[in-house]
Amino acid sequence: MQSLPLIAVTELAHADPARRHAAAAKLGRASREVGFFLVAEHSVPRATIDAAFADARAFFAQPLADKQRLSIKRSPHNRGYVAMADERLDPRAGFDRKEAFNLGLELDANDPDIVAGIPFRGLNFWPTTLPGWRERMLGYFDHCLELGRLIHRGFAIDLGLDEQFFAPHLTAPIATLRLLHYPAAIQAGRHDAGAGEHTDYGDLTLLATDGVPGLEVRSRDGEWLEVPSIPGTYVCNIGDCLMRWSNDVYLSTPHRVRAPTQERYSIAFFMEPNPETLIDPRQIAPDQAPRYAPIHCADYLKQRLDATYQHRAGS
């Protein structure tokens, strides 16, 4: 997909306002016109990314019984292991042929939000037989969190807001680091067996891939286009929450993962605002008639996840 712009996001933190605004304008164009872009010159070390992929392979190589002990079905907070066929991103097409592992913001069991039962404020599940795994994953999580905050700074500049508009809403966000494993398809039964056609639920997705193709994006004229894998870059896209918050100024674009012909791994970082943040289009586009009613971030995310997982139905 040659039309995805490549954005050097370190420019968003440059001391020169003109440099920041130029990078933000490029980011804004991509967010309005495509909903996808490539991020280059970010601050996540290559060695950290490589270690995260090695840890993902090690996790998924464990016996199924060990992974199932960390099942997402044990967590109301979207944490843990998602087994093959547990997820259906496009319910019309059936279950996805992939497995995943989710972790979120690391909190102590005595954290007031956990004690109070705040939605999406839960304990992470950790494998006990992989030395150093927890520490490396949390380090990677923190790098992605800072990158996501920086990109939100660019959104604020582009939207004509105060540069720090999003900062108070990203102090302790509902951020999910998701490891993904797609086994090689023998007889997948459908083109998008890896992950059905969908849009992402949050504000922003940062995706690192292992170079194996599979991700496809639907263009505005309905054509499915393959997203390239460029070493050292993140594939990023706008999610439904930010599209809603921006009153459709930014676009959340449908995408899918086709059944890979060889084993494929990817690592996604989904960034939503703090649970209590009110997603109200009037905050970002006060001169426009709002297309959406205000809703708290945690309530919106719950609605979307309940429709994705059978075990959450009626929760």
From TrEMBL:
Any one GO MF annotation of this record: 2-oxoglutarate oxygenase/decarboxylase (ethylene-forming) activity
Keywords: Ethylene biosynthesis, Iron, Metal-binding, Oxidoreductase
Signal peptide: none
InterPro entries for this protein: DIOX_N, IPNS-like_FE2OG_OXY, IPNS-like_sf, Iron_ascorbate_oxido_reductase, Oxoglu/Fe-dep_dioxygenase_dom
GO biological process: ethylene biosynthetic process
Enzyme class: oxidoreductase
Taxonomic superkingdom: Bacteria
Cofactor: Fe(2+)
PANTHER family from the UniProt entry: 2-OXOGLUTARATE (2OG) AND FE(II)-DEPENDENT OXYGENASE SUPERFAMILY PROTEIN-RELATED
Name the record gives this protein: 2-oxoglutarate-dependent ethylene/succinate-forming enzyme
